[in-house]
Amino acid sequence: MALEEAVKILVEAMTPYIGxxxxxxxxxxxxxxxxxxxxxxxxxxxxLVTRLGVGLNIFVGKEKSSxxxxxxxxxxxxxxxxx
Amino acid sequence: xxxxxLAMPLRLLLAFGVLLVLGWAALPDSWLYQAVLTPHxxxxxxxxxxxxxxxxxxxxAARVAxxxxxxxxIRRAWWTFAAGMxxxxxxxxxxxxxxxVHGTSPFPSIADVFFVxxxxxxxxxxxxxxxxxxSVGFLVGSxxxxxxxxxxxxxxxxxxxxxxxxxxxxxxxGGVEKLLNLxxxxxxxVLLAPLALLLRVGxxxxxxxxxxxxxTFLSGFVFVCVGDIVFAYFSTLDLTHLxxxxxxxxxxxxxxxxDGVNQQAALLDG
Lengths: 83, 270
Known about the structure:
Radius of gyration of chain A: 11 Å
Number of helices of chain B: 9
Strand content of chain A: under 5%
Shape of chain A: globular
Order of helices and strands of chain A: HHH
Largest interface: A-B, 24 and 24 residues
Structural class of chain A: mainly alpha
Order of helices and strands of chain B: HHHHHHHHH
Largest sheet of chain B: none
Distance between the termini of chain A: 12 Å
Oligomer: heterodimer
Strand content of chain B: under 5%
Number of strands of chain B: 0
Number of helices of chain A: 3
Distance between the termini of chain B: 10 Å
């Protein structure tokens, strides 16, 4: 899956909680830190989702952030990211 | 237990309290405010509303901190904030008997020991919030932008502080009173730097669930700062007829902070 498509899925999942602008900024920031581009591997996307979950955790708590992480992983899986 | 159901009735009560006190400020000589809603009664109502908001904010903040797991980077910020609000509550509790029984607000008083003690904790809490944001990659804006925000606050503090604090310095006041009238605005100007940075992040959340929490919470702090700075000016120039505006301002400030913390607690409770 292309990074752009993955970014779109992740931003969509986080938007209700932290807003589209912040969700986009957070995903972009972590993509830069992880040096992601092109078509990242499933492991790289897993790492990205985990980091986003840690960020969400400070606002919505462990339970809800785990739920969002699971939703993100499931959405990425449905779009063809192999695990 | 999710306490979000309490939010709307409490907001209505808060708005009613603010309007009542603003009415007192606008029409102090009217029959309503001379015969029914006397200044003594309104001062007592204001004292109780402030106590409820400060106590509620302290307890709810402790609840938020407890709900977060050990090691969560924002946990210490909530604990520090709860301690700061606890001291604000203690200060208001020390002031309340005088306000309720005699209808006066002595200044300076023992309450100021608690109020002054609360500021370093509240400032530290805001800094801890910023550090928590940064640790998980949520601190928006470049270093230069953040530097510009802090610089802007510094300039604003000088521009606002100079005309407001000059009469305080020149006034013939007792040592403690003068120190407090200078100290509160200075403590607020210090608080404004992390507050401005947090507001920058808060606006980034827009109208999302987290955005509503932070904008409510932080706008309460803005009103606290405005109240303290204006209080120093009013108090020094003996503009006591403007006190109702200050009471309305503080009721709103503490109410918004409590509302924000309640929303955060509800967000964690799901």
